[in-house]
Amino acid sequence: MSSPTPQPDVIVIGGGLHGCSAALHLSLRGVKVLVLEKDHIGRHASGVNAGGVRQLGRHVAEVPLTVASMALWHGIRDLVDDDCGFESHGQVKVAETEAELATCQARADQLNALGFTHEEVVDQAELRRLVPAIAGHCVGALVSRRDGAAIPYRTTFAFKRRAESLGARFVEGVTVAKIARDGKTWAVETSDGAHHTAPILVNCAGAWADRIAAQLGEPVPLEVIAPMLMITARVPPFIKPVVGATGRTLSFKQFPNGTVLIGGGLLGRAYRDENRTDLDFANVTTNARTVWDLFPVMRSATIVRAWAGIEARMPDDIPVIGPSGTEEGVYHAFGFSAHGFQLGPIVGRITADLITQGRTDLPIEPFRIQRFRRDAVAA
Amino acid sequence: MFQRLPNASGERVSFTIDGRAAEALSGDSVAAALIANGVSACRTTPVSGAPRAPYCMMGVCFDCLVTIDDVGNQQGCLVRVRPGMRVETQNGKREIER
Amino acid sequence: MSDLKPRYDLAVIGAGPAGLAAATLAAQRGLSTVLLDEQRAPGGQIYRAVTQSPVRNPSVLGSDYWHGADLVGPFRDSGADYAPGTTVWSVARSLDIGLSRDGAARVLPARHIILATGAIERPFPIPGWTLPGVMGAGAAQILLKTSGLVASGNVVLAGTGPLLWLLAWQYLRAGARIDVILDTTPRENWRQAMPHMGAFVRSGYVGKGLKLLLEVRRKVKVIGNVTSLAAEGDGRVQTVVFRQGDGAEQRLPADTLLLHHGVIPNINLANATGCAQNWDEAQRCWVPTVDGWGATSVEGVSIAGDGAGIGGALAAEHRGRLAALDALHRLGVLDRDARDRDAAPHREALDKAQRGREFLDTLYRPAKDFRVPTDETIVCRCEEVTAKQVRDAVKLGVSGPNQTKSFLRCGMGPCQGRLCGPTVVEVIADARGVSPAEVGYYRLRPPVKPITLAELASLPKAEDEIAAVLHH
Questions:
Q1: Which residue, A70, A211, A344, C108, has most beta carbons within 10 Å?
Q2: Mutating which of C143, C179, C418 best tests the B interface, going by the most B Cβ atoms within 10 A?
């Protein structure tokens, strides 16, 4: 059985935010895109993450990308015809001790030296003003004021719909069975027996991306993880910014509807072949205790639900972005290591740049896949 | 509107609803006690502010959420009424301080 | 919770007929057994308050109800531990049970777990069903059993199924008044149920059931072939609006509207544990997939009673005993032959108790219009999401309940989809023109009931801390 519609220019494997963003940016440039998704759009990490839109505290290599992505977030409606629930009330990384505050200051100094000014240290009084409910012992914070949060599934779905309206095609519920090359054409066989061909492949397969990469002869050390989140019943608004901690794992924010999301990357167990995650209540408890300590007001709050999404983590905690090291006409964007949501808008643009112009003006050298070659790792 | 069968047996329990004195039978859940006292709605929803009353009486629907002795969001149908208990109907989003 | 042991051979969750029978048999055979139950007294919903009902006249609730006391006595003597007022919010594949009681939480390990979580009333979404004064017929029955409370003023019962008629009968016995019963049983169900009539006639229910039906019909006005229903009122129900067949809209004054169209398995805990489930076309609901002993796809977790598919209270107790015998076998107490031998009488009794079930399932299957509601009807009571919103999402390409949940918050409230899941599945399936089997159900996660941050924070964190708590 062959594909009934005209051959696409690009096949994107994976319908998470990064796959949908690549599809959108390519479609904006008139490129015909086919997205293959094994479950449904935004099924895993893209649909169920904490929704943090955060520049704060990122790996230095990601800073130019995160700053460029933030500009896109502040105009997200222009990009996808939906505000994605994006609200910008800043992100705050709380310091509980003077030593932690010194760490924050060193970080701000480091970024300043590199020419970035979006992170600043605030004192206890300003922290109180930003987060009145914070526990009394907190001494200050690192703050990124243009940061915020959005609604993950709505965002991913908005990228998909906009791409679709521009001509991109999405096939959901099919897995990639086999990838083969015929001259300059890639042939992708899917689990429903269909064959799809295109000159260019994009690997946005998230926690399954290593399997695609391995088929292309470039295995990567990808770890499958399941960061956990929990959410409370609705309570009256009491906090605007997203709050994290310097010395502990936490992401804490209140949605406009009053529910409070508690996460930060503590892990459950992921079973990617079963599409399943198990919560680890020891880790949930750690998270609950952190909130107990930092937000005394939350102690009687009711936890309504908890969940975990499956995603990929690379050994160096930064993603793989850029062309394949072994095959022409293949590009990767995966391994966002539990912080890919904010980067979604820009990485799709970078991939589109690489495909349509052969280059991008953002520094992606640190994310090349070749860094995991055995000889590269040894060196 | 519900009424007690005339021959229903049980000990009388005094408690309060929104500060007003009320009486129940010792086997009553808080939700049943509210119904027995003619309370037509035990809360308003945090979404639209619509009034709600107990619907399932078996811990499933969460429409009987009330504040009991200062602890909010309690399923009234799963808590047995006790002498001196302070039950408050719950409007909209519950303050987390209580 | 210091009255509980650090660990048990067998934990049974739910103290209805299945749970009581399972725990009793297991403890009698020497397993260290605990029965965990959310209610304050044994009996589940069917035998709710059977040890302490204020309704002491036995003819009001009927002899089938008082049979529940026959299960409680042996349970009390069995040596099983009993933890009432205990909410189980997690059952992990490791067979660790997360539970809360009186504001404190703990993790309780067991070697085998039997879920006996029973049934819930099938959601009955009609316009206005969220108004105060509208409640489940099962809820009204609970108020009668536990508190001797009956609806007063203008009382309307509406729907279909044995429980609706049983409640009417009990109300009449109690001297309560019913204005009218609006019977929504679809006409064509009678024709479809006829082939199953033979088994039903042999079942022993038929005499009792007919007598009850006739007594109710003699004393209460019954309007049949009701094809639409709505509740209206300012702040509470005041009027019931309905149609008979294709007829004109009719209106009735109502202070209380009691709705019922059958019961479905309470699957949230099994689902969150990861037990495989399947769509049951006959009972029109999702049920956990179990074998003849109630064993699920999760090693060490079984389900007994209505939680594994509706079979009724008598069947539930036999299913409980079969699950307990299988637990004894799996824990090395009984070999296979002994298990099978001991199971024989219970299997025979179960077959007898289940006779006629197809007839009831077919006759009382709710009409599509009551399973797939009109646009303006609220389907998710917690987040106040309407059927139209779900349909609109499907039009945008949102294809399953987990996606509509992410998209609309439908099913995200504290009831965790119990009151909307079945409806959302039906609405999506209908809008897409596919079977609910293809649409799927919510993926649920613990906690299956809300717990406070304080309870979570009080849980022992690391393995050694858990060990310290469990063994001190």
A1: A344
A2: C143
In whole angstroms, give the CA distance from residue C208 to residue C198: 16
pLDDT at A33: 98
Which chain B residues touch C414 with a CB distance below 8 Å?
A: 62, 65, 73
DSSP H or E run through A142:
strand A140-144
**Any B CB within 8 A of A298 CB:** yes
pLDDT in tens, chain C (472 residues): 668 999 999 999 999 999 999 999 999 999 999 999 999 999 999 999 999 999 989 999 999 999 999 999 999 999 999 999 999 999 999 999 999 998 889 999 999 999 999 999 999 999 999 999 999 999 999 999 999 999 999 999 999 999 999 999 999 999 999 999 999 999 999 999 999 988 888 887 788 888 999 999 999 999 999 999 999 999 999 999 999 999 999 999 999 999 999 999 999 999 999 999 999 999 999 999 999 999 999 999 999 999 999 999 999 999 999 999 999 999 999 999 999 999 999 999 999 999 989 999 999 999 999 999 999 999 999 999 999 999 999 999 888 999 999 999 999 999 999 999 999 999 999 999 999 999 999 999 899 999 999 998 888 755 445 444 444 3
For residue C326 the two structure tokens come to: 């299988």
Contact A302 C452 (CB under 8 A): yes
CB contact under 8 A, C148 and B5: yes
The answer to whether C53 contacts B27, with C-beta atoms less than 8 Å apart, is yes
Residue A279 in contact with residue A263, Cβ under 8 Å? no
Of A218, A291, A299, nearest to A261 by C-alpha is: A291
Nearest to B97 among A233, A258, A297 (CB): A297
Please name the residue that has the structure tokens 């009388």. B12
Alpha helices in B21-71 (DSSP H): 30-36
**Pair C180, C223: CB distance under 8 Å:** yes
Question: Is residue C381 exposed (0-12), middle (13-18) or buried (19+ Cβ within 10 Å)?
Answer: buried
The verdict on a CB contact (< 8 Å) between B60 and C415 is yes
Residues of chain A falling short of pLDDT 70: 1-5, 375-379
What is the residue whose two structure tokens read 């107490």? C333
Neighbours of A267 (CB within 10 A): 18
Q: Which candidate, A83, A218, A106, A251, places its Cα nearest to that of A155?
A: A83
Question: Which residues have CB under 8 Å from B77's CB, separation 6+?
Answer: B29, B30, B31, B32, B54, B56, B57, B58, B59, B64, C142
The whole-model pTM stands at: 0.94
**Are residues A235 and B98, on separate chains, in Cβ contact within 8 Å?**
no
User: DSSP H helical segments within A54-151, as ranges?
Assistant: 63-73, 76-80, 98-113, 124-130
Q: To 10 degrees, the CA torsion angle through C138, C141, C143, C146?
A: -120
Nearest Cα residue to C350 out of C304, C305, C314, C309: C314
- Terminal-to-terminal C-alpha distance of chain C: 13
Q: How far apart are CA C324 and CA C129, in angstroms?
A: 40
Instruction: Please give the interface size between A and C, counted as residue pairs whose CB atoms are below 8 Å apart.
Output: 96
Nearest to A236 among B47, B71, B95 (CB): B95
Distance CA A153, CA C407 (A): 7
